[in-house]
Design goal:
By secondary structure, the protein is mostly helical. It has a domain at 34-81. Helix content is 57%, strand content 10%. It is built from 3 helices and 2 strands, in the order E-H-H-H-E. The protein has a two-stranded antiparallel sheet. Helix 1 runs antiparallel to helix 3 (59-79) and helix 2 (33-48) packs across helix 3 (59-79). The radius of gyration is 14 Å and the shape is elongated.
């Protein structure tokens, strides 16, 4: 899978810097981007089911989702380093 980063106004170099930062977070955590995305998907699915006990994510899902969120934050900070104002959000995504 290919990781992408969507942030209006970001140059290709800034995007590459953000993706590298995200990849470093996954490597440090010892999980793949796919595993982290799966955890995030489980967490979002639980939210979508109104936090039903039947859909509650596992501890592994929670941990993986936390890594995804940390990678997203690292990507945002690296991509926008030196910007006068850092946006609140960017979209780190995996594409097949």
């Amino acid at each position: 899978m290919k990781m992408t980063l969507n942030l209006e106004g970001a140059s290709p170099e800034e995007v590459a810097r953000g993706i590298s930062a995200a990849e470093a977070v996954f490597a440090e955590a010892g999980i793949t981007a796919e595993e982290a995305a799966d955890g995030m998907f489980a967490l979002e699915g639980w939210d979508g089911q109104s936090f039903s006990e039947d859909a509650e994510p596992t501890e592994d899902d929670d941990a993986a989702a936390a890594v995804w969120m940390k990678a997203n934050k690292a990507a945002l900070e690296a991509c926008c380093a030196g910007w006068p104002e850092v946006p609140r959000e960017l979209r780190l995504e995996l594409l097949e």
